[in-house]
Amino acid sequence: MTLKTFFGTCALGLTLALPALAETDPAVAQRKGQFQLYLHNFGVMGAMVQGRMDYDAALAQTAADNLFHITRHDQSRLWPEGTDSASIEGTRANPAIWDNLDDFVSKFVDLQNAAENLQSQAGNGLDALQPAFGATAGTCQACHEAYRDEAS
Amino acid sequence: MRKLFAGLAGLALIAAAAAWVLSAPRPLDETIISDLTGDAEAGRVIFLASGCSSCHRGGARDSDPLVLAGGRSFESDFGTFRAPNISPDPDHGIGTWTQSEFINAVMRGISPDGAHYYPAFPYTSYIRARPQDIADLYAYIMTLPADATPSEPHDLGFPFNIRRTVGLWKTLFLTDDWTVTGTLTEEEERGRYLAEALSHCAECHTPRNALGALDRDQWNMGAPNPSGRGRIPAIAGPDFNWSAFDVSAYLSSGLTPEFDVVGGSMADVVNNLRQLDKSENDAIAAYITRANE
Question: What is the CATH number that goes with domain A26-147?
């Protein structure tokens, strides 16, 4: 799958620039839901990496497969303009996202690439999982550092 | 009537004189700090633990953390502070500073020409450091690349733009007391040193009073974000129930117990602390959880 199909073939800037529906744009809850699904899978591998649970190749592989697919979810309707934390309540999406859409997208692409590598390593033992997991966490952090507000 | 005025003027004069005396800088004893010999390698650990580069690296988001060019800005109720260039550049940085000048800046908030620094520079925490560690830090910072970016001025309203007022503030609020006293294990004591003297956790996680000083009764219980958006979470108090394992893992990986990933200004803290020996983060975690018992 190419990155193009992930974000749709039209220019992402345009599709992301759809106006927000209202204060309660459902896109906000939906994108948060997507991140919760990340956790659902990312967390299983994290627990193994940190020794909170024993390594289980099948479980790790399933989680990595899921994360691979979830990070392919098309983002084009999840980030309407006007759904930033300066405009509405209930979101931690920093307004800087919409000033730097190209960079925001490239940080998503970094995550996709890391998730692809993680998928290829997760089932090969704890020593293979660890670095691939760490690299994926690094791509989450790189985006949160730049574009996610402190918790409210 | 005239007498009353004269009396009031006299009182005002006395008050002003008292304020002037109270607001005078109080540097460290020169004999203690001038003879120290710094070790740059040991200073690297102090540098990472105390987070100098989180504030003093260049303004761009991806700036090199070892080039202390300055330029980042910090919002506050009093205006916007801009961290200066503290690279070893002789003209625009601190390349010509002596070790004593550096230690007095970091541990007392006093400039080489005797002016007060604003507590946006957390000497309010570094006051608890060991002078030897700050001498090591000096040796390390002097090995970092020089950068000729000029420092930018702060943007502060009256009367906060008068540095001498900071002297009075220091009289009221500058303290080297620890939050948790009493018997601590060796690990907890190391953790207390790291958390309170160097890594200044409380400077972000504690709410401030109207004069910008930490409200020590609510130490680490969470605070509004100075940028205005979001809140800095509690790491003490009834709502904080992480184990020492959780805290240490977070400091060295950025992952919460739910495996959410760190962001905001805490990301810089994690980027520094993850480079330390795991035992250092274990120590901080031991102290943070001990403080909450």
Answer: 1.20.120.10
